[in-house]
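Class, discuss our next protein.
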Amino acid sequence: MNNRGQTLVIFIIILPVIILGVAYLVDTGLMYIGRSKLISTCKVIIDKYYEENNIEDKIEKYFIDNNIDYRDYKVSRDNNLKLEVESTIDSIFGNIVGIKEYEIVVKVTGYKDNEKIKFKVE
């Protein structure tokens, strides 16, 4: 019996699965990087404007000045300052399966503990 070419057939069958797996990893990495960037930006904003009131205009200017692509944001203040930001990240390989962009929602709460601002990320 001639077994030549079996490896090629198996490789051709498995290759799309490998490509989809790599594409998933790349898109997941991009989402993680985008989420980390949003969290860091929210922490800086909360640290910078914790004591101030009516900071909506300053937040919007900060996002624009630092090229942060956001869809919407909400600010709430109780005993702490809570910032919720919605953003989208364009999909590179998700287009293969019909996903054009990913939505990311980050909620960061800043509160004072012993005169130092601490953060809670949801």
